[in-house]
Design a protein that fits this description.
Largest sheet: 8 strands, mixed
Distance between the termini: 28 Å
Order of helices and strands: HEHEEEEEHHHEHEHEEHHEHEHEEH
CATH topology of one domain: Glutaredoxin
CATH class of one domain: Alpha Beta
Shape: globular
Radius of gyration: 19 Å
Strand content: 5-15%
Structural class: alpha+beta
Strand order of the largest sheet: 10-9-7-8-12-11-13-14
């Protein structure tokens, strides 16, 4: 499967509430919305999201949707989806100039990816490319918006149940969602879906209908979404007190959003061939924020090992900084916790070494 298919250039068909018998056990109890219970009066949506409503209700989960990825559009902030009142179809008609670029980029990145990620690394080079990636994405994904002039509007608390994000680190459209989560100061469950994924891609295919990323599940509202632009708008409307996404976040992805993927030569894109195949009893935990150069290296490793983890976003001004201080006595990130072994590290080199040694198939 090529990176082209990972970033959703094809049309997809999916049901908003797939048959329960095909869902993994962890998805079976999700309260998917019905036409009578989830109304616009309960959830606030942007004008784009409201196109998904019919007579004030979410389109019945019995209807099927047809949508082209907004991630392939020249300007993903300009929605082109339309709802058919007759059959509940959501369609998008747009060009996809990114697809030809991806078909060339994927094999090139593979050539320069540096080989086995568990082997000795040139950390000076690693930090240099990761730092350049950080510069390319300033100012997005570094700061919680609760720290700015809009703090009274934006300050958020984590929802009762954690959001679940299926993504892979190298994807620029997944990065867009992670940046939004940093700005909204959200703690989420991350299910890495690298190319060659053995578990998490199957979960997405069964619950959503296609292996398309990013894919968000919000168990608090029963909403599940593809399309990075839709997800970002939903997150800001639902967990940002209805405020619009920060200026330039959506539009920037087709420009500087690709830079970390290119500079990091596709790290965090492909499953490590020696990774363990069995899921862990308890999820790992990582204190991080999206645009941190050191944390990026750790997230890449977690993706290449397909290890699910709880991402505690602690951007500048985060409301959960005290949790990081309690755990590590420092504000530095990344900070890693493995509840399965009791290991805790605050040094990215130690974290990388630990992950590839502990979660290699050879150690099982």
């Amino acid at each position: 499967m090529s990176l082209l298919s990972l970033t959703c250039s094809q049309s997809i068909y999916f049901s908003t509430s797939p048959p329960q018998h095909i869902l993994p056990t962890k998805f079976k109890n999700f309260p998917f919305p019905s036409t009578s219970s989830t109304r616009a009066a309960t959830l606030k949506f942007s004008p784009f999201s409201q196109r998904l409503l019919r007579n004030g209700n979410w389109v019945s989960h019995r209807n099927r949707f047809h949508a082209k990825s907004a991630d392939s559009e020249p300007n993903a902030n300009q929605p082109s989806a339309q709802v058919s009142q007759e059959n509940g179809t959501v369609s998008s008609s747009s060009g996809n100039p990114s697809t030809s670029f991806l078909s060339i980029l994927c094999p090139l990145l593979k050539l320069f990816s540096g080989g086995d990620p568990s082997q000795e690394r040139n950390y000076s080079l690693e930090l240099a490319t990761s730092s350049l990636s950080t510069l390319a994405r300033l100012p997005w994904g570094s700061k919680a918006l609760s720290d700015n002039l809009y703090s009274e509007e934006i300050t958020t608390l984590d929802p009762p149940m954690r959001l679940q994000l299926f993504e892979f680190e190298a994807c620029p459209f997944c990065r867009r969602v992670r940046e939004a989560m940093t700005e909204l100061d959200l703690s989420v469950e991350v299910y890495p879906c690298p190319k060659g994924s053995l578990r998490h891609r199957e979960m997405v295919r069964r619950s959503g209908g296609k292996e398309q990323f990013p894919f968000l599940i919000d168990p608090n509202t029963g909403i599940s979404l593809y399309e990075s632009g839709d997800i970002v708008n939903y997150l800001f409307q639902q967990y940002g007190k209805g405020r619009s996404p920060s200026t330039g976040l959506l539009e920037s992805t087709l420009f500087t959003g690709w830079m970390p993927t290119i500079l990091r030569a596709g790290r965090g894109m492909t499953l490590w061939e020696k990774a363990r195949q069995d899921p862990l009893p308890k999820k790992l935990e990582l204190f991080s924020y999206e645009n941190n150069a050191y944390a990026r290296l750790v997230r890449e490793a977690l993706c290449e090992l397909e290890l699910a983890y709880i991402l505690h976003n602690v951007g500048e001004g985060s409301t959960r900084t005290n949790l990081l201080l309690d755990a590590s006595q420092s504000k530095e990130v990344p900070y890693f916790i493995d509840p399965n072994t009791g290991a805790q590290f605050g040094d990215y080199k130690k974290i990388l070494s630990y992950l590839f040694q502990t979660y290699s198939a050879a150690t099982v």
